[in-house]
Inverse folding.
């Protein structure tokens, strides 16, 4: 087959997959996981049920794929934010702010049963490891300039940052998120009086 034909088919498959993921997420958000059928998804995505089953075996598999794409998008966003900032301290602060914003915007997408199901598959743990590693590396860079405390291991500080800023998901406003980021960032500043 000519390359143009292969590219067209691949583009079509990506578009169908995207429509399936987006429509499923919208339906589950509106009706709940137990009230969404493969027939509804096929209808909303504008495809036949047989076609839908070629892509995914059930609603839960679709949601796991959707969740994986969301996680990949968030990680790519954090990387882009990091790469746009200049200087170790600015990169660290930009990533912490972006992570807090992601934590806040991700809250309440679905019911707790679905969230628990999505978080069991290992995607979230792997993504958290990647975020923690990114923050740790930024902390190392900033500590080398003396702008971040060096009396606590960067891995420990990274864990502190990720856990502290995950709390942004429970906050009511951007102002509250800003205060949380500021408090978290203050905990990273050099100190000479800590006794552990």
């Amino acid at each position: 087959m000519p390359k143009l034909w292969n590219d067209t088919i691949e583009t079509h498959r990506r578009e169908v997959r995207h429509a399936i993921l987006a429509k499923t997420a919208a339906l589950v958000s509106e009706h709940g996981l137990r009230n969404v059928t493969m027939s509804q998804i096929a209808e909303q995505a504008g495809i036949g049920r047989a076609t839908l089953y070629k892509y995914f075996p059930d609603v839960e598999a679709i949601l796991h794929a959707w969740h994986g794409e969301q996680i990949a998008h968030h990680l790519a966003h954090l990387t882009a934010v990091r790469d746009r900032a200049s200087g170790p301290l600015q990169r660290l602060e930009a990533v912490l702010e972006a992570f807090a914003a992601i934590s806040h915007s991700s809250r309440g997408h679905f019911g707790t049963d679905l969230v628990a199901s999505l978080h069991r598959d290992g995607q979230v743990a792997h993504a958290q490891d990647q975020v923690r590693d990114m923050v740790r590396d930024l902390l190392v860079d900033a500590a080398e300039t003396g702008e971040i405390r060096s009396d606590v291991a960067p891995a420990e500080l990274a864990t502190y940052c990720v856990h502290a800023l995950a709390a942004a998901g429970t906050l009511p406003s951007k102002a509250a998120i800003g205060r949380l980021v500021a408090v978290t960032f203050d905990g990273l500043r050099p100190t000479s009086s800590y006794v552990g």
Notes: The chain has two domains: 1-57, 58-196. The CA atoms of residues 113 and 186 lie 35 Å apart.
